[in-house]
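Dear Dr. H.,

I hope your travels went smoothly. While you were away I took the liberty of generating a structure for the chain from your last submission, since the lab meeting agenda had it listed for discussion. I wanted you to have the full record in hand beforehand rather than looking at slides cold. The sequence, exactly as received, is reproduced here:
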Amino acid sequence: MQIRYQTLIQALGLSLLVLFGVESNFTSTALAGCKDSAEPGVSWVDCRKRNLILSESDLRKSDLSGADFSSTDLRNSNFTGASLYKTNLMRATMAGSKAAGASFEYVQSYRTNFANTDFTGANFSKAELQRSNFSGANLSGVNFSKADLGRANFDNAILKDNNFERANLSRVDFSKAKLSGKFNVKNAYLLQTNIEDRDMSKTTGLEQWQVDIACGNDQTILPAGLNHPENWPCVADPDE
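The corresponding predicted structure, in token form, is as follows:
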């Protein structure tokens, strides 16, 4: 009986060693690419790249899913066709970068600097983008559906044929943005969203309840069937 117990314990110990050995080898393999240099097609999946200077990097068609770039300098880099799914970009800067057709789905980007970027056709669906800076960016065809854009900056940004369905646009100022084409805001939250002097006549999905909580003026043009509220004040943001 004692021999059987010893045999069982030895077998169990061997199994655990094999299991942890395989897991360790898998983890090492999965993170091996984290030390690779920035180049097109690189795989930095789940890599820690915080507080680094990576400006002017060529990361075209790279897999950066789940990577942590918080507070990292990524200015003037090329992310064309790259995947940044669930990437952490909080307080990072991508100013002047190119990311046409890139995927930013579920990205974490609080106070991220996206100024003067080219994000044509990029996907920011379900992204966290509160207070991010998109000033001067080319956002033509960008999908912002279900994204949180509270207080984001779109001054002088090109917004054309964008999808903001179910997005949070509270306190966003579109008064200085360059709006054209179709603008889908179906079920978007427009609390104190500034649409002063904007032509919203081609906007789709816009309903009266959204207009009533937004901020416009006599020069705001609404789609047929919608009316200007009696009071349309834009209250100054106390956090600015």
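Two observations you may find useful: Confidence is low (pLDDT under 50) at residues 11-30. Residues 2-31 form the longest helix (30 residues).

With kind regards,
E. W.
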